[in-house]
């Protein structure tokens, strides 16, 4: 199985900050990677698919980049509603796997 | 708009089985990949398996081989996940999630989740 390592596992940031989360894969994924946001008590919501394509309805402050084994999710200007946990998921091969998650907290 | 509605919470004893349903509406059922993902209390997301109704053959995470069965019923646009030989570590919220209508690597639609509690 392809292991995904997210870093950091948690971070504290202020409203308006630029935030970057990294997802490193144990092998090459091409662009078969997605990013999700999850808030407590809710199912995950898809933010980015195919590594860099913004899902419909997702604010443009979210962006994804990367290819191969290293991918990043960037929030350009953190908003109060962005405090949540973020996960990456690879679709390169079965079994599909998720990263361990990154908790974004208010500083 | 695709909607996935799951069955309700279940409480099971160790060794028992649980079956969770996921009814889809608002999109083509046959061509979508229905995935099952779980989340133990305070933990991250774990992928269990997937079925594409058009193909019919499910794919399971090795950890669950032999204990997990995923099926799809095209007549009712519903998918089902059955997990047997339950243990306390299987206590989790179980989600179904569908691939995007336009294709692409991502699960664009999620059910509300079904809490399964395994306790003696």
Question: What do these coordinates show?
Answer:
The complex is a heterodimer of chains A (107) and B (120). Chain A has 107 residues and is an all-beta fold. In chain A, the strands form 2 sheets. In chain A, strands 2, 4, 5, 6, 9, 10 and 11 form a 7-stranded mixed β-sheet that branches. Chain A has a 4-stranded antiparallel β-sheet with strand order 1-3-8-7, with no helix packed on it. Helix content of chain A is 0%, strand content 50%. Chain A is globular, with a radius of gyration of 13 Å. With 120 residues, chain B is mainly β. Helices cover 0% and strands 49% of the residues of chain B. Chain B has no helices and 11 strands. Chain B has strands at residues 3-6, 10-12, 18-25, 34-39, 45-51, 59-60, 68-73, 78-83, 92-99, 107-110, 114-118. In chain B, the strands form 2 sheets. In chain B, strands 2, 4, 5, 6, 9, 10 and 11 form a 7-stranded mixed β-sheet that branches. In chain B, strands 1-3-8-7 form a 4-stranded antiparallel β-sheet, with no helix packed on it. In chain B, strand 5 and strand 6 (59-60) form a beta hairpin. Chain B is globular and about 45 Å long. Chain B starts with a strand and ends with a strand. Chains A and B meet through strand 4, strand 5, strand 9 and strand 10 of A and strand 5, strand 6 and strand 10 of B.
Q: Which of globular, elongated, flat, extended, rod-shaped describes the shape of chain B?
A: globular
The share of residues in helices of chain B is: under 10%
The oligomerization state is heterodimer
How many helices of chain B? The count is 0
Largest interface: A-B, 29 and 24 residues
Q: Share of helix among residues of chain A? A: under 10%
Largest sheet of chain B: 7 strands, mixed
Low-pLDDT parts of chain B are none
| Structural class determined from secondary elements of chain A | mainly beta
